[in-house]
Amino acid sequence: MNSKYYKENISFREVILFVLPTYFTSLFTTMYTIVDGVCVAAWVDTDALASINIVYPLVNILTGIGMMFGIGGSALAAVSLGSGNSKKAGEQCTISALYAFFLSGVFAGVCIWKLETWLQFLGATPSTLTSCEIYAKIWLFGAPIAVGKDLIVAYIRADGAPKKSFFISAAGGITNIILDIIFVGLFKWGIFGAGLATIIGLAVSMILGILYFTKGKNQISFSISGLSLKEGLICAVNGSSELVDQVAIAVTTVVFNRTALSFAGKDGVAAVSIIMYLQFIFLGIYYGYSSGILPLLSFELGRKNYTACRCLEQYSYRLVSLLPIVLYCASYFLAPLAVGVFANRQTEVFTMAVRGMRIYGLGYLFAGINIFCAIRLIAYKWGKWAAVITSLRSFSLLLLFLSILPATILGMDGLWLAFPAAEAGTLSVSALISRYSTKKIHTQK
């Protein structure tokens, strides 16, 4: 393997060193949206900021397609590498990429065909519709680039090169930041400039990723010979929880926006936008760690080294049990500073978002274990069960609490409480599924 971390007796320090680049990769990925939001908030107006949030469900679905095949396919590829079958690993990555490009193209085409109707359904108002159309078209026409970046980063990580996947993502993220400043700040291109900067940044990462696989020093090699449509479906099923998560975010974002609009008008939608941006940073720590350790778990499963699997799991459970306290304290005490990046301190949006962040942040106490449990199941080819956990925390329970809590006397506080309530409610299910799967996985022949 390319990476020294695919070996016997890996220490916790080595696990962290392997995982850190993946976290930073996740952090740079969130920049594509956060930087757009910061620049638009600073140099345009709150209507434009709300427009990005309204369009983002479409982006979520594109991201979900990329992550479903990227994470689902790369997990299976890492298992194949662990069993010594690099040819099969290459075939799994190739077919999953073809499926991803096809589905994202179909989705983008359907959205462009009836774009105004979709945007109005998502919550666009007469004052935001034009901005929404501009931002949405950039993402939809750039769908292959957006999906391709997610795929390539996941495949490089599975190939045992997390540092290279980080540098590739960082190059795109830095490009995005620079172009946002130029396009939005200097050229005054508004939301068009923000969207264009994002797609160019994604393109830089994708091109660098393609160059990585052309050097011939990697274990995973793409090939169109011996492809199996069935294998592509298996990759999709294994990564289905990632699509479920992103679709759920898309749906619940609409519900969040509509509920906030009914209680607090446009200021409420702007406050929701800020909270959603900031949660990327906090949840990104959990996703970054879990996605980072995924190829290690998959590789050891392929080798049938269950002792190493148990060791990696123990490291992980300790980490996701301690981190939540740190993250919640950070979200509580740093709320004014973080929200102040997006909103003026003298505005109602600022006051609402600070209070919202402190309540919403309670969910970080439970989310880490739920996220790790789901991604662990993907690593072990139990993707269907991962989808159960994800659908509960991101969709079913969240929608349930969004329909109940704000309707009571809680109002906007109920809106913010829905997320922690859903994460807490999922925790017991995650524990039960993890306990059941551990008995099955660690006793395989």
UniProtKB/TrEMBL annotation:
Its main location: membrane. InterPro entries: MATE_fam (IPR002528), MATE_MepA_subfamily (IPR051327). Keywords: Cell membrane, Membrane, Transmembrane, Transmembrane helix. GO terms for cellular component: plasma membrane. One of its GO terms (molecular function) is antiporter activity. It is found in: Cell membrane. The chain crosses the membrane at residues 12-34, 54-81, 93-115, 135-154, 166-185, 191-213, 233-256, 268-289, 319-339, 359-378, 385-409, 415-436. It is a multi-pass membrane protein. PANTHER family: MULTIDRUG EXPORT PROTEIN MEPA (PTHR43823:SF3), SPORULATION PROTEIN YKVU (PTHR43823). This is Na+-driven multidrug efflux pump. It comes from Frisingicoccus caecimuris. The lineage of its organism: Bacteria, Bacillati, Bacillota, Clostridia, Lachnospirales.
